[in-house]
Amino acid sequence: MKYGYARVSTVGQDLESQINSLKNEGCEIIYDEKFTGTKSDRPQFQELLSKLSKGDTLVVTKLDRFARSTVDAIQTVKRLFEKGVKVHVLNMGLVEDTPTGRLIFNIMSSFAEFERDMIVERTQEGKAIAKQREDFREGRPNKYSKKQIEHALELLETNSYKQVEERTGISKSTLIRAKKKAVTDK
What we know:
This protein is an alpha/beta fold and 186 residues long. The protein has helices at residues 16-24, 43-51, 70-83, 99-131, 146-156, 161-168, 172-185, and strands at 2-8, 29-34, 57-60, 86-89, 93-95. The chain has 2 domains: 2-116, Resolvase, N-terminal catalytic domain (Rossmann fold), CATH 3.40.50.1390; 146-185, Arc Repressor Mutant, subunit A (Orthogonal Bundle). The chain has a 5-stranded mixed beta sheet, sandwiched between helices. Strand 4 (86-89) and strand 5 (93-95) form a beta hairpin. Helix 3 (70-83) runs antiparallel to helix 4 (99-131).
């Protein structure tokens, strides 16, 4: 049986393209989750690994969807090979349980880990540069203007959070943060 595994790192990311690729590859059962790849306790992946048996094929779209690190990838593939499970990484091909297949897989795993580490490093460098600007603000930019927030806080004086949220579209959590900030800024 062909099993597929799709993963994205954050809730805001979309799994659809991975799932479509896995369906096109003929996967009969697809496990998916929105879970960071740096964590080893990915529940859907662990469940999938427990279901796989001799003759099955595990299909993933890319190597970085599969493992957290080179060591993790190598150990997982080794366990799968010992169970008689084939591994197919769509952007790499079928990973063969041969000396050459394992070598290629180990090299590609190292490149995937290197690429991830470089992304993290560039992100940290960019953030360090951005922090030097005096207008730097940590986190996402506020999608509401100062005037909109002030108006919503005025409405809170005579209305409930729910009523203000319905009238302004500003969520209760944003209103609570703005109210706390207004108190600390005084």
